[in-house]
Amino acid sequence: MPLRTGSSRDTRRHSSGSQKKDDGRSQGQRDRDRLIYSSAFRRLAEVTQVIAASSGYVFHNRLTHSLQVSQVGRRLAEKLLRESTADPSQEILLDPDVVEAAGLAHDLGHPPFGHIVEEQLNELAADFGGYEGNAQSFRILTKLAFHSPKYDGLNLTRATLAAVLKYPWMRGQNTKKPNKWGAYESEREDFDFARAGDANSIQQTPEAFLMDWADDITYSVHDLEDFYRAGRIPLHLLGTIDSEERAYFKQNLLDRHNASGGNKDVVTRIDDLMNTLASLLIFTFPAMQAYRGTKAQRSGLRNFSGVLINRYVNGVKWDSQADSKYPTVTKEFRDEVLMLKELTWTYVIQDPALATQQVGQRNIVKTLFKTYSEAASDQRYRKIFPAFYQERLQEATGDSERCRICIDLIAGMTETQVQRIYERVTGTSSQSSLIDPLN
User: Taking the model in full, what pTM does it have?
Assistant: First the structure.
């Protein structure tokens, strides 16, 4: 099991110098509090979950999502601790405060406009380590966020840093998931510290496992709630076994997952998965009609979400086959969550209107990167960078470092900031130049 070797789980990466008087908080609670007060966390209020809040509906954003992941993750940990048997031969490495902190931190590296910009940034950064939202979260925690002038990052404990590693391997280390990794090479020492001697293992810590499952639960359930309310996902038509809508949804899944890079498990098990979805809706969904916003529908939908979350929280158990305490989730619940995610893919993410918007978002990011990377290479034009990034450029030793700084800047913007800066660099802004949206 990870984190059984090396120093204590409460060890921090940097010495904090003079010790503050103990205020009664655990180390995990200190980590959680540092995250809540960080500007990187506040930024998530203006980062899209799937559809921007400015669309008119009260959609979840990355901040509300992260709060929910932290809450569900904590409840998962507390549930498992209650179910633990007293066995002095087994060390239970499970701290609800650490899981909660990891939930707050897990999406800090999510760029503006969602996964489409994550893909674009990865293309732009292909020659100097790529871009991955989870690796960027780890970079923010260990390098870019601020807590003390004595060191970079938030100086979190080893346990919390390890719990944030949803993908606990470096780029290229896991051939089964080549497009996912947990840290850049520039954070290799921090990664090794977090893994405490288990850097060659690709197993999540128990706390990272719970954070990951809490992430799956919350975004699958709350995206479903958001887009049924918005009239995008026709839940009321999918519970009937022989409905035309069910046939359309099934064919869409087959077409998408038969394509190169699709999930072959979905194709081979399509009928079982469709029956899983139908059963879930038949027995738990509150209404068989389109959403109109009546009191009965609103309260029924809220109850539906609660039932699903409770179902998936209670579906986590201790793995009886493991050598030591480690959580597990049954295949039944994983299948249900998979199908909830597929609904959002079919009815929202693949929609032509969203696809068209994403083309524009890619173009905005490409324009900003070209502008900043050219300015980074010429001392005369570095004034377009915020002061902190000008300082970093002065310390950079090559093109790769300068380009990474440009990626950090763009990825760390809110969506409003990206749009305003784009308008300025393209000369289409009518706002005062005396107000810098990045400071």
Answer: 0.92
